[in-house]
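Shape matters. As here.
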Amino acid sequence: MVAVSDVKNGIYNPDGLNIPELVAHYSRKFSFDDFSTGKKINNDDLLALDVDVLAPCALDGTINSHNVSEIKARIIVEGANGPVTANANEILSERKCMIVPDILANGGGVVVSYFEWVQDISWLFWDEHQVREKLRTIMYRSFDKVYEFSKKNNIDLRSASMAVSLIRLEGAMRIRGQI
């Protein structure tokens, strides 16, 4: 990992950041200022770094028509809800940038909430390891299904995730006799 930021600014080190040290520093100061092994960077510059993976994880609309031309990452993983606008998604997809949409990348919290519900109604008690393994299985399976659908139909991952979701919804409605 070469860069991280908060809403104000970030820190960048092309040789990589020492994440445990950075977390400890940020926990003490609530700022990246004065961190010893990195250069202060603003969020616009961070988004424009020449990196393999970019993960906008805080705000919607972070990557938009005003800054999409500056994006160099080959993979974007949406850790926030809607950080890539629809027009930016279209431009990045044309440039063959893989965007892992929020519905896939940050759905783990919803899945674990479902696990809590299942445990409560069934009087089951899973330990952390079991929860993590179940989560991993579901997240990997979901990604694989969407990725395969994307490749088979020559569409981006966002469109594929929506299509797979609608197909699953249709199946559930058919089973229930609703269509």
About this structure: The chain has a mean pLDDT of 94. Strands lie at 3-5, 10-12, 39-41, 53-54, 75-77, 98-100. Residues 107-179 form one domain. The first strand starts at residue 3 and ends at 5.
